[in-house]
Amino acid sequence: MPQLTLEKIAEITNGKHSGDSNQFIEFIETDSRNLYNGDRNIFIAIRGPRHDGHAYIPELIERGIKNFLVERVESIGKLKRKINLVQVENSIDALQQLASWYRTNLKMPVIAITGSNGKTVVKEWLAQCLSHYGVSSRSPKSYNSQIGVPLSVWTIDPNADWAIIEAGISMPDEMERLRKIIVPDFGIFTNLGPAHQENFTSLEEKIREKLKLFSHARTLYYCRDHELVHRMIQEEKLLCSRIFWSVKHKESFLFIKNIRKNDEFTVIDIQSEKKRGTLSIPFTDNASIENSLHIVCFMLHQHFSIEQIGNALNQLKPVAMRLEQIAGLKNSTIINDSYNSDLYSLRIALDYLAMQKKHIKHALILSDIKQSGKPAEELYSEVVKLTQSFKLDRFVAIGREISSYSNLPENALRFESTESFLQELPQIDLSEHAILIKGAREFGFERIVSALSEKKHTTLLEINLNNLIYNLNYFRGSLSSSTRIMVMVKALSYGSGGYEIANLLQHQKVDYLGVAFTDEGVELRNAGITIPVMVMAPSNESYDKIVEYNLEPEIYSFSGLYAFSKILSHSQLPEYPVQIKLDTGMHRLGFMPDEIQTLADELLQLKNIRVKAIFSHLAVSDNPDEDEFTLQQIKLFTEMYNFLVQKIGYKPIRHILNSAGIERFPQAHFDMVRLGIGLHGISAKNKQLKTVSTLKTCISQIKRISATETIGYNRRGVLVRDSEIAIIPIGYADGLDRKLGNGNGHVIIENRKVPFVGDICMDLSMIDVTDVHAKEGDEVIVFGEQNPIEELAQKVGTIPYEILTNVSSRVKRIYINE
């Protein structure tokens, strides 16, 4: 990112500046929620149809923000003297001018991606593939709009080998503005679909508008089999070369000879000029195949070898969506996707529904699809055709258009409105279902979500699966391709939810899951988890369940070894996999060094046991002061492992590192690592990890209390002034530590710290909101990104593990997936 003085920013944007003209600016932000104190930040106040960024300036000044780019200054008033200011005619124009200026100073090739669907996936996957052979810088999330694109360009690493930017439009005449910001060297056109069609008179007009992005590019890559796209690319007077791939036309630069799908991956035979080869991708859906072939076409034309491309494709990781997964009534699971409604996102959501292995029965609740640009008969014919490829036990159609469509499935339930559905809901059996709720905003499907949700408790733990995936991939990025990952999901994945997290990790293709007790592993198997699961503290009495559910036990003692072998002899199972635990200094479970000779002898005798892995546990991997002890543990583990391997005659998997160890001791990554609390973004040292869990509640009531009064049990809440006291529905029965009471801890309301008053009660707590403009119903953050759990743990003298795992099961978990 560039570093510009305020004076230079004013020059680029034709603005007027005041304050410290020599103040350097590095970071641009347009969302006040993401901005905190920092001298090198500048907030650009943008006026939109629903929100005006200028309204948040006084609050931001209170938070310590000093630099602003604005259109008008009247809302700032007397606070103007405290800040550095650039005033412009139009903030969006200014943002785009800044990005255009920066783009002219970038030297690496820039790849622009557009189309109706798949832009974000192609961008993310292309970045993943190119990162194996250089540094690629890409636009964050789905930043592809008139605001998102300039923000994306501003974040490009000037030292990167490639920059990848996606661009989207919803109106005519938007793309030319984006082209002048991106100035792409290469372009990828993904495909054509109905998204945002309502503002275009025809598909031809929309294609023509999108192609403006590539009018001055060097090369454009696309699929020849999209006939309308191909025809219009040929007709348009583009200056760029056109390189395409096809499954139908042999004259294409990249010809797809054959596609073979297996259970978990797809094999593709390709031919390009004189090159022939076979590639494999770890996905089987058609959209993923198409998206990956855009990347293959690009990389082949950029002179990457088939071997290089194959290596990169094999390591592709899924790109997350935005969905909420919530526990529902009568042992159901709700997948809430009531934020948008179009055919492509419906397909994605149905794919996600199909992933839910916990429930055999699946249901879809679908509203009218708005602004598709298609006649209703054609649109809902496509909807029915799409849903037929998924086995739906219930189809609920809500809305005048979809409910009146004559060719819905015979078992479909039809309702003209959300209200009429809610009236009939008690008579509709959705027990034991995974329920996808997919609707346009105007239908208010949040009422359906509320009616079907298991817990009405307003306190909830929100788990951001996107951040969890980010953290997983962060750790993956530090490992060699041959090093496996075991993710610990014991104690309900540190309180975040056992099956829900395990299901995501299975989809993310981790190698192993780790649980503490046999019952946890059994629950995962019953919920459809099929990947290997290690049980770390199995009792001898649970060994029959271990075998029945194909779990791998940790064997840490001779009594356990003999007992498990005896169970296997009854089952007559040959060479059952086990994991041997060695004690290298932690002195919990495990075989001691002086027991290794006997252990080796016994393993040679017990023919029904096969050692799948040998591992140990570090005691102080996160403490640099104890590194000598940690290195001694690693040395001892290596010696004990080598001795056992020499005796038993084969090499089991080795693993010793936990989350902190992965980061600090790369020389000991060995064959596998165990990722635990780091997956949840908790690390005393690493600030690059993202927060996964946010515990939040809301204000139930606010009271004005005199300074002469006291608050709560034992009258421990003593006031020093007349105060406004808010009551929030969270207490120690929800996992809130009582030590936080009486001002020792605080919550966050509107980015402000608010202290607890009085003792923490079982179900309720009191907070002092005198200094904030709070009202009943306002959101309250107990811990999360704004109130780090590490700080909370420090206040009560414990560790983040305990805070997370203490969150009560009565607190509703909501899973966010973008």
Walkthrough of the structure:
Helix content is 30%, strand content 23%. The protein is α/β, with parallel strands linked by helices. It folds into five domains: 4-91, Udp-n-acetylmuramoylalanyl-d-glutamate--2,6- Diaminopimelate Ligase, Chain: A, domain 1; 106-314, UDP-N-acetylmuramoyl-L-alanine:D-glutamate ligase (3-Layer(aba) Sandwich), CATH 3.40.1190; 323-454, Protein-Tyrosine Phosphatase, Chain A, CATH 3.90.190.20; 466-680, Alanine racemase (TIM Barrel), CATH 3.20.20.10; 694-790, Lyase, Ornithine Decarboxylase, Chain A, domain 1 (Beta Barrel). The chain has a ten-stranded mixed beta sheet, sandwiched between helices. Strands 9-10-8-11-12-13-14-15-16 form a nine-stranded mixed beta sheet, sandwiched between helices. α3 (91-103) packs parallel to α5 and α7 crosses α8 (227-235). The longest helix has 22 residues, at 627-648.
User: According to CATH, what is the class of the largest domain?
Assistant: Alpha Beta
* Spatial strand arrangement across the major sheet: 21-20-19-22-18-17-41-23-32-40
Mean pLDDT rating: 88
Number of helices: 26
Helicity range: 25-40%
Structural class: alpha/beta
The total domain count is 5
Low-confidence runs of at least 5 consecutive residues:
none
Measured distance between first and last alpha carbons: 26 Å
Outline type: globular
Report the CATH topology name of the largest domain.
TIM Barrel
Biggest β-sheet strands, sense, barrel: 10 strands, mixed
Radius of gyration: 29 Å
Number of strands: 41
Secondary-structure arrangement, i.e. CATH architecture of the largest domain: Alpha-Beta Barrel
Fraction of residues in β-strands:
15-25%
Superfamily (CATH H level) name of the largest domain: Alanine racemase
